[in-house]
Amino acid sequence: MQNPESSCLDSFPFSEGNYLFMLGRGLKRKLSDYEENMAGLSSAFDSSRSLPYPLKRQLVLNMCLTKLQTYKMLVEPNLHRSVLIANTVRQIQEEMRQESNQQPVNICPGITPSSHSYPGMESSGISLQLPSGISQQESSCCDLRSVEDPIENSLLIVSDDDMSSAISSILKDLDFVEDISPPTCLVPSGDDQPKFPENTGLKLEDDRQDLKGAECVFGSFEISNSTSYLKDLAIDDIFEDIDTSMYDSDFCCPPLMPPRSPSLATEEPLKTFPSCNSSSASNIQICRTDLSELDHIMEILVGS
Amino acid sequence: MAGVARAGGDGGGSSNELQWCFSQVKGAIDEDVAEADIISTVEFNYSGDLLATGDKGGRVVIFQREQESKTRPLSRGEYNVYSTFQSHEPEFDYLKSLEIEEKINKIRWLPQQNAAHFLLSTNDKTIKLWKISERDKRAEGYNLKDEDGRLRDPVRIKELRVPTLKPMDLMVEASPRRIFANAHTYHINSISVNSDYATYLSADDLRINLWHLEITNRSFNIVDIKPANMEELTEVITAAEFHPQQCNVFVYSSSKGTIRLCDMRSSALCDRHSKFFEEPEDPSSRSFFSEIISSISDVKFSHNGRYMMTRDYLSVKVWDLNMENRPVETYQVHEYLRSKLCSLYENDCIFDKFECCWNGLDSTIMTGSYNNFFRMFDRNTRRDTTLEASRESSKSRAILKPRKVCTGGKRKKDEISVDSLDFNKKILHTAWHPTENFIAVAATNNLYLFQDKIN
């Protein structure tokens, strides 16, 4: 009987390259390869009884994170599906946590949560994008594993933090900005009460309310729902509309602009936009799709 | 099962003699299915004389049953197109840079109170009340205008005449009477008309709103499960329905497989349920996908109001409203898919939302499956049937042959193996005539109508 593991392996050259999600050009081609390979793996999951449980779990986890990653790139992710997938990730996360509490060491020494905080990584935390620095670590990690587990070698080790941030980022993206004063008047119990999160994102939420009160056109022009990324920065209300994922990262980033008063909000975007762009470029690697989105926004703003 | 053959007749008799035969099929035969033609909802009206379908292109097509002809008294009337109109158009939300799909998610009829017919249709964001009325007379002989409609010169009018009504070809007009907009941030999945015939509810992923049919600029939010911090969101609303008789009671189902029954008399905001229905999980069947497959895709009260039925990915469950801790009946729709869940997750089929429906007597329930199969479960005899909606068996009055899926071992003749099932042919929407054994089954872009065989 043909070993189902080897059958799906044959069609699937295992390398980090297949899991690279290069945002921007080449994405489509990579995804279709990926999809074919995943179909092979998932039927292996279904048909094989000999796949060890941790491997099955890893496979499911990777599928979940891939889907969440795909949804994040949609303009409007499906809330129902995102919640279901996030819950599945949480469930797996909880299981892995309990296991790691029982076993002192099972994480590959080269990969620790802190080592995932390197420049250039997409702040969603899904470490499917590997710059060269990490691949060295992982290949040394792979040497430690038995060669009989090629699937396990290639399936990326995803840290607990990565899973949490994947869940948070997709769910926060689904927190649609709601109109405070819509044409139809809603009973107050239905309206969102102004939110008061515990961390310094507080200023962000307040500013959003102020901005809406001023009925600023740009205030409601939400380019991508990335305001969730700004957790530890005292961020300007102006920038809440602009995709700031390039500024976000796991390490502290100095505030880019001093906070300005909301009344200047209408004039700010055009003035501050180019300057913030250039100051950030020197600090952080810019993701390609974010740049193209910014270009698109600039075009709209200048009315071209 | 031996025994007296019960009189089939009207009303969904659960006789084991019941056989289904093809009546009609609506829709194009092309292999190439236009996305806009995919049927997204099917609903009979209260009398069963009208059958409405909505599609992804935002159109509503209403079929009307022809009166039974005197020459063939036993033949049931055919359903023919009565009215077609564009209910919703694609919209663009400029504030959020989002396209709003025109796909009709649900249609619900209002009970008929005069000559016109009213229905509610909804897409993701906006609900519309449509009036469908007939016009078969027109007035002739106006004084101030010609037959063409041109105004007559008053100077030239020498005498007055009384306009007369003349018959004309029947014209069916659909006009939007109310537009209920801007009340939902998330996608509307359900609408349900209350038994008071004056109010209705609309539910999206996180909220349920109560409307009065006459008032469009105001709605009351009666359920809100949105957490203050979206990261804490673990559950969404998947379906909601008013009780058929008690106008203060409604239920809503969740993505975690639970149902909450709420009483609007207890408080204005029904975040706290009156009853909570949940079946404890069977630990032996636990898998990574347990939660996903437990998500309820449809909830329907029985006509008598004593039971409700829920559909999750693999099963249909009947609940007694007086018993919250488990369903009274569980029917497996396609248990053979349980071993294929990973593949179905990978290709997103696991998220398909199947609906379910009761027959008029609440004795049989029906739901769809893949490969254009649909299933019926007789609650009294516990027998189940699998039938297929296909062009091959679409000859007039041809009896539908029961189908069977082979789950393992040697495949018998006429059986189909699980791996041969076409997962692109899914029957998500079915409807049962309120009083007769007549069903409508939506298979992608085709609407199949089946009736029971006249013995």
From TrEMBL, chain A:
Organism equals Pipra filicauda
Query: What's the domain of life for this entry?
Result: Eukaryota
One Gene Ontology cellular component annotation held by this UniProt entry: nucleus
Q: Which InterPro entries match?
A: E2F-SERTA_domain_protein, SERTA_dom
Protein encoded by which gene = LOC113985693
What PROSITE patterns does this protein map onto? SERTA
Domain SERTA positions: 53-100
According to UniProt, the name of this protein is SERTA domain-containing protein 2-like isoform X1
Query: Which Pfam family is one of those matched by this entry?
Result: SERTA
From TrEMBL, chain B:
Tell me the SMART domains matching this sequence. WD40 (SM00320)
Q: Which InterPro entries match?
A: PP2A_PR55, PP2A_PR55_CS, WD40/YVTN_repeat-like_dom_sf, WD40_repeat_dom_sf, WD40_rpt
- Give UniProt keywords alphabetically: Repeat, WD repeat
| One Gene Ontology term, aspect cellular component | protein phosphatase type 2A complex
| Organism domain of life | Eukaryota
Family membership = Belongs to the phosphatase 2A regulatory subunit B family.
Protein name in UniProt: Serine/threonine-protein phosphatase 2A 55 kDa regulatory subunit B
